[in-house]
Amino acid sequence: MENFFAVMLTVVFLSNLQANDFGYPKPQRLDQQEDYFGTTVTDSYRWMETNDTPELTAWINAENQLTNQYFDSIPFRERLRKRLTEVVNYPKYSLPWNRAGRRFFFKNDGLQNQSVLYVLDILDTLNAKPRVLLDPNQLSKDGTVSLQQAVVSKDGKYLAYSLARSGSDWNEINVLKIDSGEKLPDQLDWVKFSGIAWHGDGFYYSRYDAPPEAERLTAKNENHKIFFHQLGTEQKDDLLIREDRQHPLRNRGATTDKEQRYLFVHENESTYGNTLEFKNLTQPDAAFQTMVSDFYSEQEVVAVLGDTFYLLTDRNASNKRLVAVDPSKPQPEHWIDIIPESESLLQSVNCIGGKFVVTYLKDAAHVVYVYDVTGKKIREMELPTLGIAGFSGDKDETEFFQSFTSYLYPTVIYRCRIDTGERTELFPSGIDFKPELYVTERVWYENSAGKKVPVFLTYKKGILRNGNNPVLLYGYGGFNISVSPAFSPYRLPFLEQGGIFAHAVLRGGGEYGEDWHQSGTKLQKQNVFDDFAAAAEFLIKEQYTSPKKLAIQGGSNGGLLVGASVTQRPELFKAAVSQVGVLDMLRYHKFTIGWAWATDYGTSEESKEMFEYLFRYSPLHNIKSGTEYPAILVTTSDHDDRVVPAHSFKFTAEMQAKSTSKNPAYIRIETKAGHGAGKPISKRIDESADVWAFIMDQLGMKW
Questions:
Q1: Residue 26 CB neighbours (<10 A)
Q2: What is 2-85+433-698's CATH superfamily?
Q3: Cα separation of 192 and 201, whole Å?
Q4: Residue 670: what pLDDT?
Q5: Binning pLDDT at 50, 70 and 90, where does residue 125 land?
Q6: Active site residues
Q7: How far apart are CA 328 and CA 211, in angstroms?
């Protein structure tokens, strides 16, 4: 009887379509109400927060069918997919790293769904050939099992690696012997937000208790614990290192130094700020000692040299500094500046060959210097153009590796020497693209606070500033994350067809240090949306484009940015793409790891003032009937357990129910995928083809 009822309900549901030009499905509105400090808020689609119900499945199927009909109607969609496949099909390499006389690196031949881990067993030999150590493509037919971490033991005997399935944040850790490739029986489940820190024939890792199976993609993640796993034992016998039942909404992780003399444990309550403790592992009965006990700053252990710790911290330094710490008096008042704070953000430090390779973020692009251990600057490492660099090296070796990328510069890998500065390019890409026909420029717009900040523009040479160019404006603006110049082959067809890609630096990010981040959080979050609007107005004023030729895009926190921009300034844009976005600001903290975002957002429950502020900009709650909204494409995935898909479901249903716009509102719901990490290349190409087809079609572009 239950099955019969479910089938009939689904049939009735699918047959109940809105009588409008777009034929949107019309889901049931339950209008559940909730009181927030005396204000009654109606939540019409609360039922969409429960996965796998017949009603939700029917709505998803109907929405995907409608969206696919639209995509199929775009005449150049298949040519776009074909061109994307061509430009993605080139060899891609990771930064190599050395361990115990071996070299490891990832490579993707071009269209492999997942990159393959290789090992070179003999260094300094021209004829040595790497061998495949682990190929994730063999773990699933559709490429939806991805390799998240790969960490080699100190002696080079073992590889511990974590796998994610269908894009979920849940991981499992496995171990194999590097000599033979034999997989050991060790398997650790329910791992999430965890590193792998080797110590002898075992390692430290973090996990949660197993959630109820029906809620594994939605249940709030609580009571994070650190364990030590000894190889050859079962997970149930792992040694509990740290938990805190009195503070269930804290995450914690562990790292060890290269010599494995010290264990470092950090805790955090949110996406910013961490405590830091350490323990001397050479002394079995040693107790943990505290370096930082609060969450008001961030600390990262860069290296242990002799008996000195080197930390990168923003404590009392918004733009960060490198400090030396004496383990006998590790509190902040005893820290000694090695590289003091400067006007540019000190983004990262690598200890290589007894020196420090220091990367600054200057106006959202990298500048790199080499310092000695006393803080004396030795030289600058010149970079090819505006872009970002990465480094891999060992504190005891003079050879290291550098990566570099920019908007028009596919990632290149260099072999370098720390003592001489010598640099040799490795692994040419051979991509089917002519970057010399294009240009990237860093121009300056005035944000809503009157500060001149960068917007990066990439386009084909010869474009005229006549107000008629199709432009995609991208932004993020949150969580102290810096979005800097980086290459993506998925943008190339848009550039080839005459589009301009614009990336705006916004408050809330990390481009100008912690003060810049804080100026876009909580009761100042509106600054982020105002900055984005100011960037759009600049592009229009300077005749790069016009509202009828301007599209916006953002993902995750950037999806919130797009949702808020659409509901606040719909007249500025012709099209908008919100990907895996945070769109219900009153309930985001009730799912999975959402509670950790409260230091950026605040919550609707903490105070009347905070509720009212969130309610004023929450995209879901600010969709108004009779408003001419731009064309909207929302994308999400069924296994997204970072930003649960209910955000996108509810926003789309509300927009479709209220909008009288002549522009459509569609949703694209991916299966067997998550928030984005580990998504197979085949799915990335399909999604990119659809997203760019939508943008180009709505902006009136022809192939």
A1: 18
A2: Alpha/Beta hydrolase fold, catalytic domain (3.40.50.1820)
A3: 22
A4: 93
A5: low
A6: 556, 675
A7: 41
Q: Are 272 and 596 contacting, i.e. CB atoms less than 8 angstroms apart?
A: no
pLDDT for 1 beyond 80: no
Mean pLDDT, to the nearest integer, of 603-610? 98
What pTM does this model have? 0.94
Q: Which residues contact 490 (CB under 8 A, 6 or more apart)?
A: 84, 88, 684, 685, 688, 692
**C-alpha span between 161 and 186 (Å, rounded):** 11
423-436 mean pLDDT:
90
Please name which of 23, 10, 3 lies closest in space to residue 665, comparing C-alpha atoms. 23
Query: With contact defined as beta carbons under 8 Å apart, do 278 and 253 qualify?
Result: no
> For position 301, what pLDDT does the model report?
98
Mean pLDDT value across residues 369-396: 97
Tokens at 499, concatenated: 């589009």
pLDDT confidence band for 677 (50 / 70 / 90): confident
Task: Classify strands 388-392 and 92-93 as parallel, antiparallel or unpaired.
Answer: unpaired
Residue 654's nearest CA partner among 619, 694, 698 is 619
CA distance to 24, 56, 545, 657, per residue, from 19 (Å): 8, 21, 35, 11
Q: List b or e across 499-508, with b for residues whose CB sees 16 or more CB atoms inside 10 angstroms.
A: bbbbbbbbbb
What DSSP letter does each residue of 223-239 carry, written as one string? --EEEEEETTS-GGGPE
CB 336 within 8 A of CB 324: yes
Give CA–CA dist 360/179, Å, rounded: 39
Q: Which pLDDT does position 625 carry in this prediction?
A: 95
Q: What is the secondary structure of 87-146 as a DSSP string? A: HH-S-EEPPPEEETTEEEEEEE-SS-SS-EEEEESSSS-TT---EEEE-GGGS-TTS-EE
The DSSP code for 569 is: -
* Mean pLDDT within 513-542: 98
Give the pLDDT band of residue 124 (cuts 50, 70, 90).
low
* Local structure of residue 247 (DSSP, 8 states): -
| Mean pLDDT, the chain, integer | 94
| The one-letter amino acid at 443 | V
Residue 12 has pLDDT above 70, yes or no: no
Q: How many helices (H) and strands (E) does the chain have?
A: 11, 39
Query: Does 3 score more than 80 pLDDT?
Result: no
- Contacts of 5 by beta carbon, 8 Å cutoff, 6+ apart: none
In this predicted structure, what is the pLDDT of residue 126? 52
C-alpha 480/C-alpha 252 separation (Å) is: 19
Q: Could you tell me the pLDDT band of residue 21, with boundaries at 50, 70 and 90?
A: confident
| Residues contacting residue 566 through CB under 8 Å, at least 6 positions apart | 552, 573, 576, 578, 619, 629, 630, 632
Q: Between the CA of residue 424 and those of 316, 399, 400, 413, 637, what are the distances in Å?
A: 39, 11, 11, 9, 41
Residues 475/506, Cβ–Cβ less than 8 Å: yes
Nearest of 272, 224, 276 to residue 250 by alpha carbon: 224
Enumerate the β-bridge partners of residue 135. Answer: none
498 in Cβ contact with 468 (< 8 Å): no
| CA distance readout (Å), 71 to 68, 76, 555 | 5, 10, 21
What is the maximum span of the chain, computed from C-alpha positions, in angstroms? 78
pLDDT at residue 9 tops 50: no
Q: Which two tokens stand for residue 340?
A: 């003091």
By the 8 A CB rule, do 613 and 585 touch?
no
Q: Do 604 and 617 meet the contact criterion of CB atoms below 8 Å apart?
A: no
